[in-house]
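Repro case for the chain-ordering regression, as requested:
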Amino acid sequence: MNNDRAQMLRRLQEADFAMYEAVLYLDGHPTNKMALAFYDKAAKAYCDLKEKYEMTYGPLTIQNASGPSWTWIQGPWPWQNEMEE
Amino acid sequence: MWIYDKKLQYPVNIKNPNPAMAKIIITQLGGPDGELAASQRYLSQRYSMPYNEVIGILNDVGTEEMAHMEIVSAIVYQLTRNMTIEQIKESGFDTYFVDHTTGIYPVSAAGVPFSATYFQSKGDAITDINEDLAAEQKARSTYDNILRLSDDPDVMAPIRFLRAREIVHYQRFGDALRVIQDNLDYKNFYAYNPEFDKR
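-- result from build under test --
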């Protein structure tokens, strides 16, 4: 995986993590205004980054897997690193 | 990683409680040919698999099996709502009830708790896909037997769906075996293990 891709993936993982932390907190505090605002911001940041990542490097979820060829199965898979490439 | 989709893959709407049926059907959650074993089998086998087509099939069938765990659990849950103590005793559900009340816990029809010994991840492509082909047929037979023991159309509809999926998965693992064999030495498929040996 090239450096740009690895960096963008890292940012996506951070955005996803921030969103998910808010999800867990909101499950137990569903009316907390600050958490709701944090979630909205985090979810938007995640969706924007995901769209950008997928445009360059291919689908992360099957909903976005269409295309002229079935790129869904292209490596690297999440558990693979440079040793496979 | 995974994202939860807040819907069942196939609807489950059961009107009448039937704890005897629940005790049978729970085997497809925690039994030897159940959906929990299926999901863990395929998702475990993905890592050392060298072919992207086969990784994709293991990943996506394994993911679907997790959705099937949820369908089976929803069936068992709905079959055990609003039971009287008399129904619990008469149906034989009392042996499950004493340990789990109406909580969903992965056991076989005989009450044996789930075990990872129900599946294998051998690290050999041909071996693993043959296990998977057999597993889909074993699950199909189990759903056939559940249909033989059931007369409630509300229960039979989702069970028929799950049974049909076993057959589709069997076909897809057939594709996987073909991909593996196409990548191997056609004179001797067993000349080396593509998950371990260097050519």
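Ordering looks correct now. Residues 29 and 66 of chain B are 10 Å apart (CA to CA).
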